[in-house]
Every structure is written in structure tokens, then in C-alpha cells.
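Researcher: Final request for today, and then I'll write up notes for the group meeting. The sequence and the SMILES for flavin mononucleotide follow.
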Amino acid sequence: MQTSPVATTVDPSAGSQGVPDKVEFRNAMARLGAAVNIITTDGPGGRAGFTASAVCSVSDEPPSLLVCLNRSASVYETFKRNGVLCVNVLGAGHQAISSLFGGKTAMDERFASASWSSGPSGSPILQDASVSFDCRLSQITEVGTHDVLICEVISLSTGEQAQSLIYFNRQYHEL
Ligand SMILES: Cc1cc2nc3c(=O)[nH]c(=O)nc-3n(C[C@H](O)[C@H](O)[C@H](O)COP(=O)(O)O)c2cc1C
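Model: Predicted protein-flavin mononucleotide complex:
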């Protein structure tokens, strides 16, 4: 016998359950496995970094990607002021640094936990990242609680990491 998954639809006319609430939506989104990244910046606004899974490729011409940043995050103004950032893609063994940059730890303590170099934009590059994309912000779009940061890649560096760190069902997995 075939079983069908429980359907939750965002179109009230297309299903019986109606528009999902915040908790239903978050629980459903937890099923989207995603790469984990440390997003860093440095410049006139200071140095800052946070963990993000809402990162995706946008276009290869010009090479660009997007990062979603909560406007209520403590790092928000720093990223906006600097106008540059680096997406450091995490690999195996990076769970601890992900938790540090994804929590309430002081910024100096976050950066003291790893080794960094500096890209052309001045943003910190994580030494053993799987890959790092150094970017400048080209567009910002507000959507609900978050800003979608469209970033043009100005330089990239590929590391030696053979495995990727994935966040799925609120847990880390190495792939
Ligand atoms: C696995 C993981 C993924 C996250 N993804 C995002 C994200 O895509 N966008 C975002 O704004 N915050 C994301 N966060 C939360 C931020 O990392 C966190 O709010 C930030 O580091 C701390 O912000 P605060 O200094 O305002 O407390 C994520 C956290 C974790 C642990």
C-alpha cells in the first residue's frame, strides 16, 4: 500500500489545512537539508560573523549568491554598513564553530575559535573552509523579518575539505 505525506499548503484554496502558522512552517523547513556557512564581514562598521543556512546560488553571470539575514540579529547593522561579506562553507568537524557563530557568544570569542585570513573585500576567510566566497553587497530586498542580501562574488578560494556539513532536521550531518 502506498502512503502519502501529510500535505500543508500555502494556498488556502488548494487544500483543507489552510495557511501554515509559523511553527508548522519552521517544522516543515527543518526538512530541507542545507549546507552550513559562517558569514563574515569587516570594515568601517567593525568585524562580525554569524552562522547561516539560508544561502544559495543566484547567477553565474555575474557570479552572485544570496544570503538571508534576520534584521533583528545583533550583526545586522555591521553587515549593512560594511557592504561586503565572505561566505565560508563549512565542512566535517565544524559543528562547534557553527554553534558559536549561531549563538549568543561575544564576537571576539567567536573569531578566537579559528584561524582566519583576509580576502580582497577585507572580510575574514576561515582557514579550513570547504570554499569561501568573498563578496560585495549589490542589492538588498526586505522580505518579512529578513533581508535578502544579493552578493556579487569578487574572489573565491577552495579548500581541502572532502566532506560537507549539512543541517537537517535540526541536527548536523557530515556528507
Ligand atoms: C544552523 C544555523 C543556521 C542559521 N541560519 C541563519 C540564516 O540563514 N539567517 C539568519 O539570519 N540567521 C541564521 N541563524 C541564526 C544566526 O546564526 C544567529 O541568530 C546569530 O548568530 C546570532 O545573532 P545575535 O547575535 O543577534 O544573537 C542560523 C543559526 C544556526 C545554528
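Model: The chain has one domain: 35-164. The longest helix spans residues 22-29.
Researcher: Thanks, that's everything.
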